[in-house]
Amino acid sequence: MTSVLLIEDDPLVRRSLELALGRYGYTMITAATGENGLSRFTEEAPDIVVLDLMLPGIDGFEVCRRLRLDSQAPIIMLTARTDDLDVVGGLEAGADDYVVKPVQPAVLDARIRAVLRRAVSDLDGVRSHGSLRIDTESLTVTLGGAPVPMTPTELRLLLTLSRSPGRVFSRQQLLEEVWGHGYLGDSRLVDNGIMRLRAKIEDDPAHPEYVQTVRGFGYRFGPV
Amino acid sequence: MFVLIAVLGASAAAWAGAQYASRALTDSSQQQHADALVAQVTAAAPTVEYPPSRDALDQLRAAVGPHALAVYQDAQSASGIFIAQDGLITSDLRDAVANATAPGGTFTQRVMVEDTPWVVIGAPVMLTAPDGTRSPSGVEVYRAQDLSPVDADIDALTRAAIGTSALVLPVAVLLALLASRTVLAPVRRLRTTARRLADGDLNARTHPRGVDELAQLTSTVNEMAESLQQSMVSMARIQDDARRFAADVSHELRTPLSTLTAAVEVLDDAFQHRSAPHPGTDASTSTDTDAAQESARMALVETRRLVRLVEDIMEIARFDAGTAAMRLEPTDLLALARDCVRSRGWTQDVTLTSPEGADLVVQADRRRLDVVLANLVGNARRHGAPPVRIAFSAAPDAVEVTVADSGPGIGEDVLPRIFTRFYKADAARTRSHGSGLGLAIAWENTALHGGSLTAANTPDGGAQFTMWLPRAGSTPEGEER
User: Fold this and answer.
1) Mean pLDDT to the nearest integer, A202-206
2) Are residues B11 and B124 in the same domain?
3) Average pLDDT over residues A106-125
4) Which of A81, B323, B342, B368 has the least CB density, counted as fewest CB within 10 Å?
5) pLDDT at A164
6) What is the pLDDT of residue B476?
7) Predicted ipTM?
8) CB contact under 8 A, A19 and B291
């Protein structure tokens, strides 16, 4: 069973989401503060974190950053504010996706499943590009022999792009393939995902070798 | 531009001066000759007998000067230029002299003789009868005068004027440049400042120098910029507040809606399960019912909160729009406070003290003051600790009500922002019972009465709110928070 750590300070929101998501078959772990959430994460090692951004004590952004220090578990942000600063800040802090309150439990369930989905792979063995090796069977990535830890979203993004080196993917295509979002998705998810991916595999993320920007269209893998 | 005007001005002045001087010179020279002629004729006339003989005319002509002509009917005696040049005397001049009746009159005519300017002056010789009346004798005397010396003078004068101009012009230009430095430079600086202001740089200022009109104008522009800057700052603050308020409203509404959305889905799910149980789910009926019951309870709590929140937001919106209506009537604050406490069942926790026989009647909107008091007492019971003390003091023109509790008081960092909308003392923004608008609404309601609401801590540590209300219940003069 998939375990979900829900970090939300409002008791009613926390409890109602706990009940509602529980009915989708998730094992629910809850925390009311960021500090408590971090320790619960260490104790329970949940499969995914649903994180409210506005928290007493350390806020959601900080929780996100601290989780990302040594974990690749997917993080979905919950935000009650529609200002873009929240969304951008959360994505930059390492969140994989976000939902805006009030969220329908069915939608949250779909997002959780999309983020946790196993990376789509053609199982075509090892793709080697320069010093980057992508093993599509063991789903591991090494750079110059050293393993590169990746979140499921980053891995899916890399696998999707590297499946057809040289092909340009639009943000919309990536949103659908990697995030499972419909046509109203937020392209900032893609841009932030690319940014995090580059930070992990590029020597100089400002002058990327593997993941290239095609201005006005989207992104392309290589050619290396 | 300024320099050009100055140069033109100086030249024009020099030229006009020369012209004026030359005309004056010509005029005075003509007058001189005319006066001389009159004096000579007057002196010679008595010795002439009438009708004059040829000798008499010669004599008269000789008395007048080297270039002279004496005429009597057909006889004439000429000398100098009058012999050499015929037709010096135009018929106009001749008629004017012949028909002159007034004594002492002279007539002049300028003529050019071989490029030399001459002036011809004519005068009639008058007869004086024994009874003193004077009449024309028919004798006319003309005298011609070479004007070349005068012209030479004028030429010299013009040359002098040109010379002076040439000398003065650089000085004038210099002065103009200097003037443009001292007069135009400040104008230019002011213009630059005005342009910067127009472009939105509200920090632009010109330092005023001196005490002239320009300095005054500069000061005025500075003042204008200052007040513009201030109103921009306060506009920006209002905009900022509005934006923050909108964001807060969004957040405050979305949170209870989150609970409702989740709870209602659980409820819906539970009812569908009851009517048509899913074969795949192993959720037992009892946990289903438990979850449904809990969700229903949460939905109810959140709905009530939501209703209250929406009402408070609407109230705030009315304050902001200036459409909050007041129904003023004479109101006894002690009675109002007693009713407020009793109707909410708080009598146990609240003590009311008022000075003996004090007049506590003010013009007020009862409903609004009830809201204020209920909020203050409710806050005191919730955040502070009982007993809550409501005390009154009366002044001739105002009444003061204090609500104090026995709790830990208000943090120093919280005090300045206690009336801020949605501001919550616990930084978590965790929702307590209120909407987060109660104190803001209380403050607005007091202000609507022309009064004030302030927060402080009592010496023994509790929180104390002081509401000051003018008896007249007038509208406030200022609404600075």
Assistant:
1) 87
2) yes
3) 80
4) B323
5) 86
6) 45
7) 0.82
8) yes
Where among B321, B343, B378 does a domain terminate?
A: B321
- Residues B283 and B375 both lie in one domain: no
Residue of B nearest to A57 (CA): B428
Chain B: give the shortest CA distance to residue A52, in Å. Answer: 11
- Answer yes or no: do A17 and B265 touch at CB < 8 A: no
**Chain A residues close to B283, C-beta within 8 Å:** 23
pLDDT digits (tens, 9 = 90+) for A170-185: 999 999 888 888 777 7
Write down the pLDDT at residue B274.
67
Report how many Cβ contacts below 8 Å link chain A to chain B: 86
- Chain B CB within 8 Å of residue A100 CB: yes
pLDDT digits 0-9 by tens, B389-401: 999 999 888 999 9
Q: Which residue of B has its CA nearest to A109?
A: B262
Q: Do residues A188 and A87 lie in contact, with contact meaning Cβ atoms separated by under 8 Å? A: yes
Q: Which residues of A touch B261 (CB under 8 A)?
A: 102-105
Q: Read off the pTM.
A: 0.62
Instruction: Say whether B262 and A81 touch across the interface (CB within 8 A).
Output: no
Residue of B261, B291, B294 lying closest to A102 (CB–CB): B261
Pick among B255, B302, B426 to test the A interface (most A CBs inside 10 A): B255
Q: Which residues does chain A have within 8 Å of residue B265's beta carbon, measured at their own beta carbons?
A: 20, 104-106
Where in the sequence is the domain holding B241, given as residue range(s)?
237-321
B261/A104 CB distance under 8 A: yes
Q: Spell out, as residue ranges, where chain B has pLDDT lower than 70.
A: 1-3, 6-7, 10, 101-104, 274-286, 424-433, 473-481
Q: Does domain A3-116 have CATH number 3.40.50.2300?
A: yes
DSSP class per residue in chain A = --EEEEE-S-HHHHHHHHHHHHTTTPEEEEESSHHHHHHHHHHH--SEEEEES--SSS-HHHHHHHHHHH----EEEEES---HHHHHHHHHTT-SEEEESS--HHHHHHHHHHHHSPPP-----EEEETTEEEETTTTEEEETTEE----HHHHHHHHHHHHSTT-EEEHHHHIIIII---TT--HHHHHHHHHHHHHHH-SSTTS-SSEEEETTTEEEE---
For residue A121, is pLDDT > 60?
A: no
Is A81 at the interface with chain B, CB within 8 A?
Answer: yes
